[in-house]
Specification:
The protein has 136 residues and is mainly α. The chain has one domain. It has five helices and no strands. Helix 4 packs antiparallel against helix 5. The radius of gyration is 17 Å and the shape is elongated. The two termini are 19 Å apart. Keywords: Membrane, Transmembrane, Transmembrane helix. It comes from Georgenia wutianyii. This is DUF423 domain-containing protein.
Length: 136
């Protein structure tokens, strides 16, 4: 049986609880798709992208968390490998959703900056974990 470190256990618990927000995002998407929430085509596409990224990245983040336990990474490197993708799972969907809010919006607002910030954490976490696995 795989034994998880205390850091991995607490991070996994938070991630699983945070996955509930993906469910609420799905409910919101149903309202957008059925026109109960008015949205421009731009908003609809950004809301869909935010919801999809959230779901995929939470699952990928949990896998990365488990795989980090198989590495010899410590300190900040272990943190980055364990949580980089999970941070991206928050930042990137937030960038999609928050940059598209507002009646009749046709273009993203300044919060679109969360997308590249999240992408940097995603790539950094994946690279760190990949190197950690190859050197374990």
């Amino acid at each position: 049986m795989l034994e998880l470190s205390p850091a991995a256990l607490s991070t996994a618990g938070v991630a699983v609880l945070a996955a509930v927000t993906v469910t609420s995002g799905g409910y919101f998407m149903i309202k957008v798709a059925t026109a109960k929430v008015p949205a421009t085509p731009f908003q609809t596409s950004f809301f869909r992208a935010g919801h999809a990224h959230a779901g995929v990245f939470v699952i990928l983040g949990l896998v990365c968390l488990l795989l980090t336990e198989a590495t010899g990474l410590t300190g900040g490197w272990a943190w980055l490998a364990r949580t980089g993708v999970l941070c991206a799972a928050i930042l990137m969907p937030a960038g999609f959703f928050l940059s598209a809010v507002g009646r009749g919006r046709e273009r993203p607002n300044r919060l679109v900056i969360l997308l590249p910030v999240g992408a940097v954490l995603l790539v950094a976490g994946l690279l760190t974990l990949g190197v950690g696995l190859l050197t374990a």
